[in-house]
Design a protein that fits this description.
The protein has helices at about 35-40, 45-55, 130-135, 170-180, 255-265, 285-300, 330-345, and strands spanning about 20-25, 30-35, 60, 65, 70, 75-80, 100-105, 105-110, 160-165, 185-195, 200-205, 205-210, 220, 230-240, 245-250, 305-315, 320-325. The protein is α+β, with helices and mostly antiparallel strands. Strands 7, 8, 9, 10, 11, 14, 15, 16 and 17 form a nine-stranded mixed sheet that branches. The protein has three domains: about 20-80, Roll (Structural Genomics Hypothetical 15.5 Kd Protein In mrcA-pckA Intergenic Region, Chain A), CATH 3.10.290; about 100-180, Pseudouridine synthase, CATH 3.30.2350; about 185-345, 2-Layer Sandwich (Pseudouridine synthase). The longest helix is centred in the C-terminal third of the chain and has 16 residues, at about 330-345.
Length: about 350
């Protein structure tokens, strides 16, 4: 049974969904809430996940979106949609080089390059970090309702580079998962954004959720009437007139959190095509400047975001450990070019 997602995947999806289940309610069926009705027909899926799927529009009754408390009637048709087409969930181990920053018997910390998808999904069934992990490591644990993603307790977007912790044992997975749930994991990102924030530091405390217009995008809901609370702390490390280098620390870890929050405050990530950062948002319209920015886009053909540091309590030693990573070549090169541009203009 495919996993019903609570949030959008990190990879891009087409604008349509795929039918995974088509259920016709028996003529003798008594009136019953749709979430309760589906519990018996969708093995290994909790009621909360079914309710979330209904709310997100993945489950339709007679081709109409309904609420979880809507009662099914005899003869009703229920269709369950997912962003991915039906696919064999068997993982294919691949000899993919991994940049391992640390490893012991309980866990490892890897530095994911930009462009690598973390786990198999639509259009990316091979070549992912998980394909590499299953080749190099045997019997990695899997979280409940998370089939096909052994060792994973969190993830970062395809276009984002940086550090990820991978669990090697059930104990480590449970311990780390609780830290993420409790928001005690320390995660620091470096982001290159358009413009210069007014304040040198600030807190963005705005709900985020799947966009009501485009399911592939995370949108801000400042009224708090939709989505889930998301908190990002930022500090300006360098001001370069048209762009800025920020340090972003996460309290929560929502899908596309930094990317969506930065767009919300008017400073999209540099070359973030999903959130409008792949356009020239600051500066002049002169051809030389335009050519300079376009050249920078070519150097870093993805959002300028790097998961730089990662800190957590070790599951076995119970001591706090922290890891740091250097900026990848493309990020460092673009930053250097902007610094040079500012010195000469």
């Amino acid at each position: 049974m495919p996993d019903i997602p609570l949030i959008s995947e990190e990879t891009s999806h087409d604008d349509y969904l795929f039918i995974h289940h088509h259920i016709k309610v028996d003529p003798g069926q008594a009136l019953l809430r749709i979430d309760k009705f589906l519990i018996d027909r969708l093995p290994n899926i909790s009621r909360s996940r079914i309710q979330a799927a209904v709310k997100s529009g993945f489950i339709k009754l007679n081709d109409q979106e309904v609420k979880a408390n809507h009662k099914v009637h005899p003869g009703d048709e229920i269709k369950i949609y997912l962003p991915d087409p039906p696919h064999d969930t068997e993982l294919i181990p691949e000899d993919i080089p991994l940049s391992i920053q640390y490893e012991d018997d309980e866990l490892l910390v890897v530095n994911k390059p930009a462009g690598m998808v973390v786990h198999p999904a639509y259009k990316n069934w091979t070549g992912t970090l998980v394909n590499g992990l299953t080749y190099h490591f045997q019997q990695l644990p899997t979280m409940k309702d998370n089939d096909g993603r052994p060792g994973l307790v969190h993830r970062i977007d395809k276009g984002t580079s940086g550090l990820l912790v991978i669990a090697k044992t059930e104990t480590a997975m449970n311990h780390l998962a609780k830290q993420f749930f409790d928001h005690t994991i320390e995660r620091t990102y470096y982001a290159l954004v358009w413009g210069e924030p007014k304040d040198d530091a600030g807190t963005i405390d705005v709900h985020l959720g799947r966009s009501l217009k485009d399911r592939r995008v995370t949108a801000a809901f400042p009224e708090g009437d939709f989505g889930r609370r998301a908190i990002t702390y930022y500090k300006v490390l360098k001001r370069l007139r048209y762009i800025s280098l920020l340090q972003c620390d996460l309290e929560t870890g929502r899908t596309h959190q930094i990317r969506a929050h930065m767009k919300y405050i008017g400073h999209p990530l540099f070359n973030d095509a999903t959130y409008g950062g792949d356009q020239i948002l600051k500066g002049t319209v002169f051809s030389k400047y335009s050519a300079f920015v376009r050249n920078c886009f070519k150097i870093i053909p993805r959002q300028a975001l790097h998961a730089k540091t990662l800190g957590f309590i070790h599951p076995h030693t119970k001591k706090f450990i922290q890891f740091d990573s250097e900026l990848p070549d493309d990020f460092a090169a673009v930053l250097e070019k902007w610094e040079g541009y500012m010195q000469n203009h």
